[in-house]
Specification:
about 110 residues; GIY-YIG endonuclease; 4-stranded antiparallel β-sheet; about 20% strand; globular
C-alpha cells in the first residue's frame, strides 16, 4: 500500500506534496528535517492523505497534484471525500495517534466514515 499526502505549514503558507510506501517512516523523515523543503518550518500539518494500491498510482496522483498546485486546487483535494484526514494533524503528533487511523481507514478505495 502507498500513500499520497499533502503537508501544510501555516508559518510558510506553503504546501508539500509527497508519496511513500512507509508513511510513518516518511513523517519521521520530515520531523528530523531530512527534507530540505520541510526543514524550513516546524509547524507542518498533514492535511491530505489518500491510500492507493501501487507506486505507479501514487506517483501519478502526486504528479497530478503537483501540476495543479494552486491554493484553490489544494483545497479541493483537502475537502475531497477520498481524504482520510478529517482534520489537520501536526506531523509531530503523527506517531502514537495516527497508526490506529491508518489501520482502520487506509484501505485502497475505501471511503472514510464519520
Amino acid at each position: 500500500m502507498f500513500h499520497v499526502y499533502i503537508l501544510y505549514s501555516p508559518s510558510l503558507k506553503k504546501h508539500y506534496i509527497g508519496q511513500s510506501s512507509d508513511i510513518d517512516g516518511r513523517m519521521l523523515h520530515h520531523l528530523a528535517h531530512s527534507t530540505p523543503f520541510t526543514s524550513q518550518a516546524d509547524d507542518w500539518r498533514i492535511v491530505f492523505l489518500e491510500a492507493v494500491s501501487s507506486r505507479k498510482e501514487a506517483m501519478a496522483l502526486e504528479a497530478h497534484i503537483k501540476r495543479s498546485k494552486s491554493r484553490k486546487s489544494m483545497e479541493r483535494y483537502i475537502c475531497d471525500s477520498r481524504n482520510i484526514m478529517k482534520s489537520p494533524v501536526p506531523v509531530s503528533d503523527w506517531h502514537g495517534q495516527m497508526g490506529e487511523v491508518l489501520d482502520g481507514l487506509a484501505q485502497p478505495g475505501s471511503v472514510p466514515t464519520s
